[in-house]
TrEMBL record:
GO terms for cellular component: plasma membrane. It comes from the Bacteria. InterPro entries: K/Na/Ca-exchanger (IPR004481), NaCa_Exmemb (IPR004837), NCX_ion-bd_dom_sf (IPR044880). One of its GO terms (molecular function) is calcium, potassium:sodium antiporter activity. This is Calcium/sodium antiporter. It comes from Tritonibacter aquimaris. The keyword Transmembrane applies. It is found in: Membrane.
Length: 314
């Protein structure tokens, strides 16, 4: 029972610390005059992916690389099917108003690159360098687009950014950053260590734990935010947020973690889970290119597909 309780405690710490880090990072950037669009595409993306990053690094250091790999692949699948599906059941997501075609194409390209590197058998340091170089290109394109908006007098809108307060005092920003940076490694260690114990005690593979318990746990902040956005009828940004988060997970999490150690790719990833992740990404085609809303029916379909995926895994 204790490993389950400590895993839950680690997850709670991760959620609270991730929220603190995002609040601090967003408001520090606003106080320093960094464009809000750059904040949302870089610092917020890194902040919301920080739990996945810390878990991946902790898993590799604890000799449980399958948890690191499962966390990234499972989180990307959960972000599409669960994070978009569940909120759509409440109020629908008005994704027809969100133009994410360019970023979506880049996300598909990142997915294909990730799968191709996985078929080499393991993610090594040079694989990580390739992923981070692609990430640098993506961020450079985002920065150029933001500058073009600014030159046209179209600075980014803060309305869709949670907890954005350009007047927040620096001492309060410092507290948020401190709590986030201290809490994330603590929560990651607790969750990974005890998830590994659970896996070995009950004969469950570390791959399954990473794809389910850890992946869903690290996707909870995005899920909670998207549910509230749907309830407030501000869910048109949800699709773009999921696409950006998935792209950052693919390129940054494994890319940075390879500097800590190599990440072997288990055969089950190559046979099944990577293809499920890619298929989940392709499900978004009608919502991105055909400007369809994710209504309650589609929400039920996406949620049902995720439940089916979990049943197959378990």
């Amino acid at each position: 029972m204790m490993p389950w309780l400590l895993s839950a405690l680690g997850l709670i710490i991760l959620l609270l610390a991730g929220d603190a880090l995002v609040r601090g990072a967003v408001n520090l950037s606003l106080r320093l005059g960094v464009p809000a669009l750059i904040v949302s595409l870089t610092i917020v993306a890194f902040g919301t992916s920080a739990p996945e990053l810390l878990i991946a690094i902790s898993a590799v250091l604890d000799n449980a690389p399958d948890i690191a790999m499962g966390n990234v692949v499972g989180s990307n699948t959960a972000n599409v099917l669960l994070v978009l599906g569940v909120p759509a059941l409440f109020a629908g997501l008005h994704t027809s108003e969100c133009d994410t075609r360019k970023n979506y194409i880049m996300m598909l390209g990142a997915s294909v690159l990730f799968i191709a590197l996985a078929f080499l058998g393991e993610f090594t340091l040079w694989s990580g360098v390739v992923l981070l170089m692609v990430l640098a290109v993506v961020l450079a394109l985002a920065a150029r687009e933001a500058n073009q908006h600014r030159k046209c007098g179209q600075d980014a809108d803060l309305e869709g950014m949670e907890d954005a307060d350009p007047s927040m005092p620096f001492w309060r920003i410092g507290i948020f950053l401190f709590l986030g940076l201290i809490g994330l490694p603590l929560g990651a260690d607790l969750l990974v260590d005890n998830a590994t114990i659970i896996a070995r005690t009950y004969g469950i593979s570390e791959t399954i734990i990473g794809l389910t318990l850890v992946a869903i746990g690290t996707s909870l902040p995005e899920l909670a935010t998207t549910v509230m956005a749907a309830i407030r009828r501000q869910a048109d940004v949800a699709l773009g947020n999921v696409i950006g988060s998935n792209m950052f997970n693919l390129l940054a999490i494994i890319g940075i973690t390879t500097f800590v150690g190599e990440i072997p790719v288990a055969p089950e990833f190559l046979r099944f889970d990577l293809w499920v992740m890619l298929a989940a990404s392709l499900v978004l085609v009608p919502f991105v290119f055909l400007k369809r809303d994710i209504n309650r029916v589609w929400g039920a379909v996406l949620s049902g597909l995720y439940v089916t995926y979990l049943v197959v895994l378990l």
